[in-house]
Amino acid sequence: MTLNAQPAASLFIGGRPVEGEGGALPVLYPYTGEEIASLREASAGQVAEACRVAARAQPAWAALAPAERGRVLSRAAAIIRERNEELSRLETLDTGKPIQETLVADWESGAQALEFFGGLAASITGQMIPLGRDWAYTRREPLGVCAGIGAWNYPSQIACWKAAPALVMGNAMVFKPSEETPLGALKLAEILLEAGLPAGIFNVVQGRAEVGAALATDPNVDKVSLTGSVPTGRKVYAAAAEGMRHVTMELGGKSPLIVFDDANPEHAVSAAMLANFYSSGQICSNGTRVFLQEGIRDAFLDRLAERVRNVRMGDPLDPATTHGPIINPAQAGKIRAAIASGLEQGARLLCGGPGEGAFIPPTVFTDASDEMTITRDEIFGPVMTTLGFHDEEEVITRANATGFGLAAGVFTQDLTRAHRVIAQLQAGTCWINSYNLTPVEMPFGAVKQSGLGRENSAAAIEHYSQLKSVYVGMGGVDAPY
Ligand code: NAD
Q1: From ligand 1's centre to the CA of 316, what distance in Å?
Q2: Can you give the CATH number for the domain in which 380 is found?
Q3: Which of 51, 184, 451, 452 is most exposed, with minimal Cβ within 10 Å?
C-alpha cells in the first residue's frame, strides 16, 4: 500500500496545475506522521494572479444561462460519486478521519451540495413589482470573485459547500484550503474542469494565514467566505470590511445539547456520542456542553460509559475503525491541556483522558460547572462536558450564557416543550431529538460570535449574490421645472 498522495502541482490557476512559488508545505498523514505529499505555498504574486484570472473569466461564466451552469455542477456531483472510494481514501490520508466516515460524510456531502445548487440554478429568479403605470423588477446578480478559506476538519465538504452556491450564481472562486489539508480542493478543481467548468472559474491557492490574509484583501475579491475559528473570523471580517466586501463566517462553537428527563435515553446517548466523538470531536457544531436533567442523569451516564467501550480507535484506513487520530500534534497538545485544566478545576473523568501520541480517546467529564474552562472554551477534540440541571428556565439561561451561537439540541418527548425551548436558544442551527445532521436542504449557520451568513439551501444564494433594482418608466417624465 502506497501512501503517496502527491498532486500534479500545488496550485490550480486558470484551469491548470501550477507549482507554488512560496514556502514548503509538507502534507503529513495524521495517523503516522509520514509525509504523503510535498507542496509549496502560493507567493503573493500568485495569489494576485489567481484573483486576476478569476476576475477575467467571471463575466463570460455569468453570461451563460443559469441552467447551463447548473448542468456543470450536476456533472461534477456525478463524477464525485463515481470516484467516491478513491476520493474518500485521499480525504482519510489528508485528515486522518476513519474511512468509515469519509466514505459517507465528506465528498458525498460535497456531491449533494453540487447536485442541489445545480438543480436550483434554473429557478433562481427576480421579482416583478407592479407600480401602476410604471413597474420595477429585481435581478439577482453575482458578486464577482469570491474567496473561500477552509478549515481542516471537513476540507472537501467545505470546498464544495462554498463553491456550489458561488458558481451557480455566476461568480468565480479562488479557494484556499487549510494548510493542514490541502489535497481535496485540488481534486475538486480537476473534477469541475472535467465537468465543463471554464478555466479560471475555480482556482486553488495554498498557504498559511498570510496567504489567506492576502486573498481576503485582494482588490479583485468581492466576497470572503471563511470556515475557521472565531479569532481568525474576527481578523478576516475586519480585513474584508476595509474593501466593503461581503462575508460569510462559519466559525467555532460550544453548543449545548439539553437532555430532559422524558427523553429516550438510548437515542440521547447516541446523539451525544455522535455530537462529541464523530471525526474525533473535530466538528464545529458539536454539542460539547451536555445538560442532563436530574432524573435521567445517572441512567444516561451509565449507558454512555458502557457504549464508549464500543468505540474502535486505530488505523483510519481499517473500515472497522470508528475513532481516528487528531489532525496534528499541536492540536492534540491543546486538547490535552484542556483535559488537564478540567481535572485541575475539579471535574471528574467518567472515561477517557489524555491518550497517547496522535490519539485521544472519547473523554467525558462529570461534576463540571459552568465556570470551568472545559465548559466555556471550544476544545475541538473528543471531549464532552456533562452538566446537571433542574428545570427548563434554568437550563435555557445557562445554555445561552456563552459568546458562541452556532448550534443547539434538545431531547424530549414533550412536543410543546421541544419547540418552546428551541425558540429561546441563541443558536443558528438546532436539532430536536437529533444532532449534527446537516442536509443541504436546510440552512446552516450561526448567530453571535460563531458567525454570520448561511451555507446550504436556497438561503445560501442570498450570500453569493446581490440584488439590483430596476425602475421601468412606461410614460413621460413629470418635472417641476
Ligand atoms: P483556523 O481559524 O486556524 O484556520 C481556518 C483557515 O483560515 C485556514 O485556512 C487558515 O490558514 C486561515 N487563516 C488563518 N489566519 C488567517 C488570516 N489572518 N487571514 C486569512 N486566513 C487566515 O481554523 P482551523 O484550526 O483550521 O479549524 C478549526 C476551527 O474551525 C474551529 O474553531 C471550528 O469550530 C471551526 N469550524 C467551523 C465550521 C462552521 O461551519 N461553522 C466548520 C468547520 C470548522
Answers
A1: 23
A2: 3.40.309.10
A3: 452
